[in-house]
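Bench log, entry 3. Co-assembly request; chain sequences pasted below exactly as received.
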Amino acid sequence: MEEFTQILLLFISTVLINNFILVRFLGICPFLGVSKQVETAFSMGLATTFVMTLTAAATWLINTFILEAFNLPFLQYVSFIIVIASLVQFVEMFIKKTSPVLYKALGIFLPLITTNCAIMGLALLIPLNGYSFIASVVFGFGAGVGFTLAIVLMAGLREKLEFGDVPGVLKGVPVTLIIAGIMAMAFMGFSGLISM
Amino acid sequence: MNPTYLYSLISMGGIAAFLAAGLGFASEHFKVEQDPRVGKVEDALPGANCGACGYAGCEAFAEAVVNGEAPVGGCPVGGDKVASDIADIMGADAGSSDKVVAELLCGGGIKETTKSGKYQGIETCKAAHSVNGGEKECQYSCLGFGDCEVVCPFDAIEMSENGLPQINYDKCTGCGKCVEECPRNVLMLAPLSGQTHIRCSSHNTGKIVRKTCEVGCIGCSLCAKVCPVDAIEMKDNLAVIDYEKCVNCGKCAEKCPTGTIEFQGRWIEKVEINDKCVGCTLCAKACPVDCIDGEVKKLHEIDQERCIQCGLCYEACNVDAVDIFYKDEN
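Structure output for the full assembly:
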């Protein structure tokens, strides 16, 4: 029971308190680039969550059974990169074959997140925090959910903003960055929600 | 050897080999049958997945091209080279339709037109059009700031010294970007095979055109009357050519009193059938005015009274039995 509570707390803390985008500032590129429509933002979030969960599991296995076992922590970066890249490729092929609908929904986002820093950040944070396998997967899933939450919120705001009276100089990216800053400050309010 | 090196090599090699095997297996096992041209088109594309074409990445664009939804020249990043590569891949499918290129429907450059004033605003056609219509008096004229030149993704348009866009037919892919961009609508897409062009868009009456432009259409309708195949129609003081019907005889350009009509082909003086004729009737079928008489398997003859010297019989003949005499030869 104690363990379950820990896992639940980890999940909440990853989604809200240590949100990947708004607190850790990872994955800013899609956050700004793919947040014009709620629908595409959600697809992106879905794809990212999917890849993050898989990445967490795969990198934990690689790290624990190969890198740590042979005392090769310096290989983390390079091995994680190839693992993530091939994993995404594999998943893309798998989805294309098994579920064309899902493939269409994720579309171009799947290969794009391969090179996203949020994924790499996740992979590197896991050994740093020393999570167990279950905790790693939950951490990955939570990170994805947090990513989706932030990007969908942003897209919702930007959709509204399309009709707003934005001064010329701030139109487009500038006002988006300002919103991102305010959102990040708002998410700071979650810190201290739980203590682990 | 230091065991760290060894372990690194083995573990990285192992991981890489395992992943490579996994991917290789997956690419065979999860293969999805699709039109092989999609893959080829995708290979020809730059592969940047930039989305500038309006599709979600290069693969989506390739699929759209193969399905005939996107033009072969739709990739603005790849430009000329990629467009022609894709056209090669799509080959016969795309080639069956006539190639279209942009044509300018205005001949009034700086020299030929009268000015209404001086324009000192932002130097784009869009701006000039929305402010006061630029310097030229004719409100249908080309503004000459070259918005089409800027928007052309294939560098096929160059502004001449006379302030008119010149279209390079080799580079033009008929993407239609310039046609959309032009605020005056003086550009249109026309088949490359069309050699007769009416370079005017003015619906003004002849009197006004005479005052504002040396080469404008005054709506005299001489061209429409002389056209043997009724390819020219008068629409609101302006002669408009139907490229589908036009046989490129150049008669209209000859008659036009203002030189509005440009004929890019060669004028034919006379067409004759020689004794090589085998009587296949191909020429008679090709003739737009039915001036070729003759029975099957017998020597055909051209009724010179009715002949319009379009040269279609010459192109139709398979046995070299039609002789053409061009005007510029004597």
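Residues 31-157 of chain A form one domain. Chain A touches chain B at residues 62, 66-67, 70-72, 75, 78-79, 82-83, 86, 89-90, 93-94, 96-98, 107-108, 111-112 (CB under 8 Å).
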